[in-house]
């Protein structure tokens, strides 16, 4: 049985309280960003259908088929749709690249997908020279006409700047 403060309690409570918290706010025409925990079909329908808002979700292992479909599509990616950087931030030289597609919209088993994307983050620690690369996958209900690759990348970056400053 989960105990208060337990990770399972936190996950369950966050999923159940996200929509009621947003009910008090006018989000029509806005884009709501969420990490993988809230990448849920019912939450996507709530945002788009009930609240006339858009979503920008991170996709990870809690949606295994969605994650695998997006990962496979972008496995042999060529030239990125947009590159941000290199820039010196927090003692690191960072470059971000994004690839987007609407080719998966009818294929993915997820409501209201306008685009899927992958972001590649390359970091070099200035002090040590240590190099790292990570990939982040996601979906947005915004179509390419509503948000180009640069805008999708900036939305993603904005989500994490809020997330990081809250911790």
Description:
By secondary structure, the protein is an alpha+beta fold. The protein has a domain of 104 residues. Helices cover 33% and strands 29% of the residues. The chain has a 6-stranded mixed β-sheet, sandwiched between helices. The two termini are 27 Å apart. The C terminus is likely disordered.
Globular, elongated, flat, extended or rod-shaped: what is the shape?
globular
Q: Strand order, biggest sheet?
A: 1-2-6-5-4-3
- Residue share in helices? 25-40%
| Mean pLDDT rating | 88
Count of individual beta strands: 6
- Identify low-pLDDT runs: 160-167
Along the chain, the helix and strand elements come as HEHEHEEEEH
